[in-house]
Amino acid sequence: MHKIFLAILVIFLTCVQVSAQTNRWSVSGTVKDKDGKALPSATITILDPKDSTLVTFGVSNPTGNFEIKNLKEEELLIQVSFVGFSTFSKLIQKPNASVLMALGEIALNEKTADLDEFTVEAIAPVTIKKDTIEFNAGSFKTMPNANVEELLKRLPGVEIDSEGNIKAQGETVRRVLIDGKEFFGNDPKLATKNLLAEAIDKVQILDRRSEQSLFTGIDDGQREKTINLKLKDSHKRGYFGNVTGGIGTDDRYSLRGNLNKFSDKQQLSFLGMSNNTNEQGFSIDDYINFQGGLQSIASAAGGMVRINVGGPGGAQPAIPLNNGQRINGVMNSNAFGTNLNKDFNKKTQMRSSYFFNKLDHIITQNTDRLNFFPNGDIGFNENSYQDNLSSNHRLNLIIDHKIDSLNSLRSTTNGQYTFTDRLVNSTSTNRDGDGNLLNRGERSNFTRGDNFQLNTELLIRHRFSKPGRTLSSNLIFGYNEGDYVGNLYAENEFFGSRPALEIIRQDNFQRNITYNYGGNFSYTEPLGGRKYLELVYNFRQNLNEVDREVYDVEGENRVFNQSLSNKFNSVYTYHRPGANISYNSGKYNLVAGVALQATRLNGELLLFDEIIKNNFENFLPSLRMNYGFSNSKNLMFNYQTSVTEPSIEQLQPVINNADPLNIYVGNPELRPAYVHSWRINYNSFDVGRFINLFASAFLNFTENAIVNSQNIDERLVRTITPMNVRNSLMANTNLNLGFPIKPLNSRFNIGPNLLYNQGYNMINDLEDIIRIKNFGGNIRYDYNWKEFVNLGLSANISRQETAYDFSPLQNQLFFNQTYNAELGVNFLKQYSFTGNFNYLKYNSRTTDFNESIPLLNLAISRFILKSNKGEIRLSGQNLLNQNIGVSQRADVNFIEQTVTNNLGRIVMLSFTYKLNSNLNPMNNLSRPGSGMRTFRMMN
Length: 939
Known about the structure:
Layout: H1 2-20, E1 25-33, E2 43-47, E3 54-59, E4 65-71, E5 75-81, E6 88-93, E7 100-108, E8 117-122, E9 126-129, E10 132-136, H2 148-153, E11 158-160, E12 166-168, E13 171-172, E14 175-178, E15 181-182, H3 188-192, E16 200-209, H4 211-216, E17 223-231, E18 239-248, E19 253-262, E20 266-275, H5 284-290, H6 293-300, E21 330-343, E22 348-373, E23 376-402, E24 407-431, E25 437-463, E26 470-494, E27 500-528, E28 531-554, E29 557-560, E30 566-584, E31 588-605, E32 610-630, E33 633-644, H7 648-651, E34 655-659, E35 662-665, E36 673-686, E37 691-703, E38 706-712, E39 718-724, E40 727-741, E41 746-763, E42 766-785, E43 789-804, E44 812-827, E45 831-844, E46 850-864, E47 870-877, E48 884-891, E49 894-901, E50 906-914, E51 933-938
Parallel strand pairs: 1-7, 14-17, 35-39
Antiparallel strand pairs: 1-4, 2-3, 2-5, 5-6, 8-51, 9-10, 10-16, 11-12, 12-13, 14-15, 16-17, 18-19, 18-50, 19-20, 20-21, 21-22, 22-23, 22-49, 23-24, 24-25, 25-26, 26-27, 27-28, 28-29, 28-30, 30-31, 31-32, 32-33, 33-36, 34-35, 36-37, 37-40, 38-39, 40-41, 41-42, 42-43, 43-44, 44-45, 45-46, 46-47, ...
Protein name: Carboxypeptidase family protein
Main location: membrane
Subcellular location: Cell outer membrane
C-alpha cells in the first residue's frame, strides 16, 4: 500500500515539474509612500480585467519589494493596496521579450476625505495586522454545508488531524473565539465542528498574550495560539444553524443540530446530538470532566492514583481518547449544551455555558503481551468485556466588571456533577516461553458512584496611575465530594510446583471530601529603561478526607477487611514566593525569574494509627526569551524548573487489590521529582508565498524521577510500588514545512519528528536502563480546484525501538503506519461526492505481529430547496466491514498488541436543513465563494 501511495506522490510531483516548464511570466515592483519609505506587507492583487475575479495575490516584503510568479494570462489587472493609502491600479500585459515585467517603484498616496471615486477592488485573501494574520473566508472554497473545521483545513499554515485538533503555523491552537468571545469555554472543537463555514467572514490567527500581560501592559513572553472567527454581518441579524437527522442499517441513527443568535452585544447558542454510530468530538478536558475530574478517577480506584503499567487491571476510561484513528468499541452518545455571552454595558460582561453529556460505551478486547524479565519471557493474554456508562452536567460562569479605569473584578465559577457506572469482566492467562500455563484468572469488577465539584475564583486587579505599576490578587476556593460503591469477584488458579485456587468476593464503599483554598498575589513595578519587576506569592491549602471500607463476603455475611480499607485525613499546604525581572524591546523580550517552593504534607491513617509527615523545599529558577524578526517570524527559548511531588495516595502504604494479580501499594519514603525543561521554537510564515516553517526542540531532565517498581513473585502476582530512581531524560524534535504549488492549486506539508526517552525500570529490585527511540513523521498533499474539487493524500509513519541493558536480545522494534486519501467533488450544481480511504498497518519485528485494516467511507449528496438549504445524503461508513480496531505499543518491559471490537459496515440516509439561508437577502446574487469583489463608493 505504501508503494502505491508513494507512486501517486511521484506522479503529482512529475506533473508539477512539467507544469513549471510552461510559458509563464512574472511581475515585480517596490511599494513606497510618497516620501520614498518602503511599505512592507502591502497587498498585491492580480485580477482578471474581464470580470474582476481573483487570479492570485501576494504581499510585499520588509523592504517593500514583491514578485508575483507563474502568471499565464495575456492581460491582467494589478492592484496594490495598503491600510490608510489609496489603491494603485494598472492594466498589465504579458511581455513579449522577457518573462518578467518590472513595474519599478509604486508610490501610494494617503487617502483623503474629499475624493469622489467609484472603484472596483478585490478583497485580499490575506492581510497582516501587526501580530495578526487575517484570512478572508470567502477566498477559500469549501463544500456546501461545510463546518468551520473544513474551512480551516484550506488555510495555509493550518493543519487539523482526524480528531479535530488544530495546529496553526506549527503550534497547537488552544482557543477558538467567536468575535473575540469564548464559545463553550475553551474547547476549540465545539466551535469548529458546530458552526457553518458560510457564517464566517474573516479568520484571524494570532498569538494571544496572557491575561496578566494584557492587564499590566508588560509583555511576559507567554503566548497562546488563538483563532478568532469574525462572523458576517448577515449572521448577526437573526438565527442561524442547521439540523441533521439520519437512519441507517442495523438500527443505527444519528441526530445533530445547532442554533445560534449572535449580535454585537450578545451571543446565544444551542447544540445537541444523539447517535449510536460512535460519533463524538471530545477533548482531554471533556474526558476529565466526564469522569468527575482527576480526583474522581483516583477515588474510583480506591483512593489511590492507579497507574496502568500494562497489567490486566489497568483502568480503562469510560470515554476513549482517540489515537488519531477511530473510536473502538460501540458507543451511544447523547449531549446538549447552551452558551450565552452578554455585554450588559461597557463595564460588565458575562460568559456562561452549560453542557450535558451521556455516554454508554461497550468494549470487547483481546490483548496479547510479551513481558521481558531477566529470568525469561512471559506471555500474557486477556479477553475482557467492559460496559461504561457516564453522565455529566457542567456549568461555567465568568463575570468581568470594570469598576473604573484603574480597578476591575473577574469572577469565575465552574460546577459539575458526574455519575459513573462501570462493569469489567475479564479472563487472563500467563504462560512461560515454552507455552506452559503458569496461572489463569477470572475477574468481575463493578463500580458505581457520583461526584460533585465546585471551583470558584475572584480576581481583583488595580492599576496605579504610574504606567506599569499594578497589583492583582486571585482568591480561590474549591469543593469536591464523591460517593462510590463497588464489588469484586476474582477466581485465580496457580499451576506449577505450588498449585492453588483462590477465590475473592468483596464489597467496597468509599466517600471522599476535599476542600481547597488559597490565593495568588502579584505586584509589578517599572524600573525604567523598559525593565520591570514582578513580585509574586502563591498560597494553597488542601484538606482531604477519605473513608474507604472493604468487606470480604463469606456466604451471606460481610467481614471487615482492615488491610484493604483506608480512612485518612490529610492537610497539604503550599507556599511559593518569587520574583521576575523582564526587559522589553522593540524586537525581543526577556523574563528571568526565581521562586522558592515550600510544601508541607500532614496525613493520618486512622485504621493503622500511623502519621505521614513530609516537608519539601525547592529552589525554582526560570528564563524565557522571545525574539521577533518580523510579524511573521520569531524565535522562542524557554527554561523552567518544576517539582512533581508525591501525593498522599502515593505515600500511604495501603493495598489496592482491584486486580488481585496486579496489586498497588504506596510508598511513604517517596521524594519529590525535580524537573528541568528546555524548549526552543522557531516559527516562520511567508504570507506572500504561503510558506510556513516551524521547528522545535524539547528536553526534559528529571532528578529523583518517580517510577513504578514491579515485584513479581513465583506465581506471577505483580506488586506495584512507586519509587524514586536517579533520573530520566526525554528529548523531542520536530519540523513542519508547508508550501504551495500554485500552478497545480496544490500544497505540500512535511513534518518529520524524533523522540528519545531514557529512564530506569525496577523489576524485582533490579534497576535497568531503558532507551526508547521513535522516529517518524507525516507528509500531506492537498489539491483544491475552486469550490469543485478537493483532494488530500497523507501518510504518517512511526518506527519505535526499545533497548534494555539487562538483555539486549529482548530489544523491541515495531512500526505503525497510516495512509489516507480523501476526495470531495461538487458537480452538476446540486450534487456533491465525498470519499475517504484509510489504510492502517501495524508490524512488530519482535513478535512477528502483522495486521492491516482498510477503511472506506463514501457519501453522495443532493442539495434541494431554495438556496440549497436542504441536503439529502446517502453515506456508507466502513464499507469494507472491518469491525475491529488494532493498536500496538511498547513500554517499560513489554510489547503488546490489542484487538478491539468496532462498528462494522453502516449505510445511512440523512437529511440536513440549514436555518440561515434566508437571513441574507443578497445571498443569491453571486455563486458561493465567488464573493471576492466589492463595489465601494468613496466620498
